[in-house]
Amino acid sequence: MSDNDAGSLFERIERGEIPADVVRENERIIAIRDISPQAPTHVLLAPKVRYRNATELAAQDPALLAELFLVAGEIAERDGVAESGYRLLFNTNADAGQTIFHVHLHLLGGRPLGGLVDGPVPE
């Protein structure tokens, strides 16, 4: 899925234009269940302010980047995957599989995830 003039997928979800299973939301972050999960727990965490990728977010708002990781940890605890283990993943730019150019963090857990990467995580 690519971006368009109507806004990114996450902006449209936040505005209520697209339904989503929102698992957490605050003034700066929205977290939703992935509609095509790659693990029993597969949550996408996105800042409400749009940054193109993780590098842009880190350069412009490192505190928000840290907040994404803290919220991901809280969701992992709540979903019962914190102790057994979970993966946090950013796809950055097209060759890495990024198709939604609004930075978002994948939280995956609930099953053994294998080696470094099992393959691309679709968006």
TrEMBL record:
It comes from the Bacteria. InterPro entries: Histidine_triad_CS (IPR019808), Histidine_triad_HIT (IPR001310), HIT-like (IPR011146), HIT-like_sf (IPR036265). Pfam families: HIT. Transmembrane segments: none annotated. A motif (Histidine triad motif) lies at residues 102-106. One of its GO terms (molecular function) is catalytic activity. The active site is at H104 (tele-amp-histidine intermediate). Residues 9-118 form the HIT domain. PANTHER family: HISTIDINE TRIAD HIT PROTEIN. This is Histidine triad (HIT) family protein. It comes from Halopolyspora algeriensis. The lineage of its organism: Bacteria, Bacillati, Actinomycetota, Actinomycetes, Actinomycetes incertae sedis.
